[in-house]
Amino acid sequence: MLMSPVEFFRTLPKKECPECGEHMEEQAESYMMECDRCLSKKGE
Ligand SMILES: [Zn+2]
């Protein structure tokens, strides 16, 4: 049975920050692994 495109995207795992485990919004152009909070910490 083929999955519909909608079902396919729903089954994708949520992106999770490896630093704090925070779930992140999927950002197509983002290549960063960490969430904004951890990134700003590292920037200091
Ligand atoms: Zn984080």
From TrEMBL:
Protein name: YhfH family protein
InterPro entries recorded: YhfH-like
Lineage top rank: taxon: Bacteria
Native organism: Neobacillus kokaensis
The organism's taxonomic lineage, starting at the top: Bacteria, Bacillati, Bacillota, Bacilli, Bacillales
Cross-referenced Pfam families: YhfH (PF14149)
